[in-house]
Design goal:
Chain lengths: ~425, ~425
């Protein structure tokens, strides 16, 4: 199965121009991309990708929710499928690389392998997932979770976007009539490979070109309501106050220092704070703050949560503060395929491409597949770590190196 | 000058019904009062008060900004004036007692003294200040600071309310044409006496009927902007963050504990916190929070501010945080007349009325007069410490005792 990809192979086609081409579907005035699930730009982009796939000899089809597949049939009869790809949807004013690069890289890798080596032994499919971001409707992984069989129409009935447009109506208008829905679940996937931009700055700082993702973190999100008593800022002595802002500040300071101290991979973020009544000369009676906690080991998440919430509660009890903790997200950590990652390390060492093992702090379609089949997730660097922004950028050399590694891996898996 | 007020004097007229009568100007559905400067309710209330003053033999006039005076001429020719009263304006959905009680109490006290003892030796004037709250236009003490000579038309040119209505237009329509403005400054005030609800719960807790205010606190207000860097909550390790929320939390925790520790009369309040972009899964790049600091001694305010701001700055420097501190209020502390307060203590002891010395944590017209003439400020209890709310309440016994003490003091000062 060992191979040497010819250098010339990578000069024929141009990943940079394909990035710009795909970004033209949903391009904004600020040179960002807004390509929301089932929007006009989304429909046009998926159809255009379908046409490109067909041009290079892939057999295409959409499933019931709009996941696009381009199939290169294997010569080995009855073989399972190696799936590779990423998502087509973006956040509002997102970048040109998030999701899109993974779709394009998979397309180019399979095209190049096909051109150079002909059909593989095992079937390879390129996938452009319909949705991952949760940026239009309040749910994420609509594409991959339908394939996994965890999501179906029940999850989106009654769901509306921020403008009150129903999910099922948008789905139907995009060409995917819920009345003809057949579950997109797949039981023929032998392995899944995704390449994605890092969306962080670790690779850039360490001057690495490839990140070999060992784990995708688990994520827990909470809203914590701190209920004290609203009072006059001038006439209420400090010791008589039940000040929700100062209580919340204690909790945030504590959880931040505890996260720093407990484990270098643990992150805990309070990104949203709302104060009531939020007036300079009134002691605040209520604060609601968000808490986003991520780590790749469930037991670290457990012990962090146990420790901070019990500390919050003791403080609250001692200060006549009422505390309400509501969890609204619980995604378990995923460990990616150690076998595939070994193959990737071999490949990068052969090509003398600088790489490192890395933990993904963001969610990806790969985490859905991680629970159903051996899965590999590769990163290329993000300039300044910026993502979800028109300033998102990865240089062409890194993109091409990513495609090299992906191609080699697919070769090792399917040829 | 010693006197014994006849008990019967206080049975004739009814403070409670007069409170309800004045509250009828601007009464809201929630049984609150909204009587904003130069509004229709305000105009009607000042005119109605003028009529009542005239009925009981006071000589009335409005000055150029709408302060209403009711004058009881002294028999001593060339005597200066003892001024007594409070403000007529309210906050939006305020209570029936804040300001209003002081105007009514002064009116009733002077009426009763006049009925019982005839004209005083020194002239007494009842005043209903046009504005103290700053609840319609963004300035406070428009009434008393015009009398003080510190404010004039220059301070309000171009000023608009939250609906874009110009100050000078509202003033003219209320009957006070800026073109005929003559400075309301007074240099004939020998002393000023104000009675007001406490707006806090100290008297109630200590079961006292009268608060003898020794000082009105100085107030400093700031907006503190904490500038860090916005980042992905999943991909940015804790030690690489410049998190504005966690920095602001450190500052708030520090200033709160420092205020508790430095002086029992010091209060420091962060009532307003605004976070940007305020999204759960994004490390916040910016926080702006308000800081309201009050104490009756300038040197305590100075040393507190020095200590907290230098600590904030050291923390910011060590964490690549940029700090912007903007002060937008600086009111100096005022010490009230020790001579008048001695008279008040004598009176309350004679009448066996429970009293205590108290520091006012809220601002009052008395603090403007405190810098130009001997000034006395008296408090009656507020039920549950509530003010600026339809739930504001003081029981009739306490109101009457307040009028008793005020009457006796005016007798001692003017008869």
């Amino acid at each position: 199965m060992a191979m040497q990809i010819k250098e010339s192979l990578y000069e024929k086609d141009d990943v940079a121009s394909m990035i710009e081409w795909l970004a033209s579907y949903g391009l904004t005035e600020k040179q960002g991309v807004t390509r929301l699930l089932y929007s006009k730009a989304w429909v046009q982009a998926q159809r255009a990708l379908k046409t490109e796939m067909e041009k290079v000899g892939l057999r295409t089809h959409f499933d019931s929710v709009g996941n696009l597949f381009g199939r290169l049939e294997g010569t080995n009869p009855g073989s399972k499928t190696i799936l590779t790809g990423s998502h087509i949807d973006t956040v509002v004013e997102g970048g040109k690389y998030d999701g899109a690069f993974g779709v394009i890289a998979s397309f180019l890798a399979v095209q190049r392998l096909h051109q150079t080596y002909g059909p593989p032994q095992k079937t390879i499919e390129v996938v452009s997932f319909c949705e991952e971001e949760g940026s239009r409707f309040p749910l994420t992984f609509w594409g991959s979770r339908n394939i996994q069989g965890v999501y179906g129409l029940d999850q989106v009935k009654g769901l509306m976007d921020s403008e009150g447009y129903p999910f099922l109506k948008a789905m139907k208008e995009a060409g995917f009539d819920p009345d003809t829905y057949i579950t997109p679940v797949r039981d023929d996937i032998e392995g899944f490979v995704e390449i994605h931009i890092e969306q962080g700055s670790i690779l850039e700082k360490n001057q690495k070109t490839i990140g070999v993702v060992s784990h995708i973190v688990g994520q827990r999100r909470y809203t914590i309501r701190v209920l004290g008593e609203s009072n006059h800022a001038g006439t209420t002595p400090m010791h008589d106050r039940r000040d929700a802002v100062s209580a919340a500040s204690e909790y945030i300071s504590f959880l931040t220092s505890k996260a720093k101290e407990m484990d270098p991979h643990l992150v805990a973020t309070v990104g949203k704070v709302d104060v009531f009544p939020n007036v300079p000369n009134v002691v605040a009676g209520e604060v609601a703050f968000s808490l986003d906690i991520r780590h790749h080991q469930e037991d670290v998440l457990n012990s962090f949560c146990r420790e901070i919430f019990s500390t919050f509660q003791s403080h609250a009890d001692g200060n006549e503060i009422q505390l309400e903790v509501a969890q609204w997200m619980d995604v378990v950590p995923v460990e990616l395929s150690t076998e595939m990652n070994s193959l990737v390390r071999e490949i990068t060492e052969n090509h003398k491409i600088p790489y490192q093992d890395i933990i993904s702090g963001a969610g990806h379609d790969a985490q859905v597949f991680g629970s159903i089949c051996p899965t590999c997730l590769l990163f290329v660097p993000s300039r300044d770590g910026i993502s979800h922004s028109p300033r998102e950028f990865t240089n062409i050399q890194d993109l091409e190196k990513g495609i090299d590694v992906l191609s080699d891996l697919l070769y090792k898996l399917a040829y």
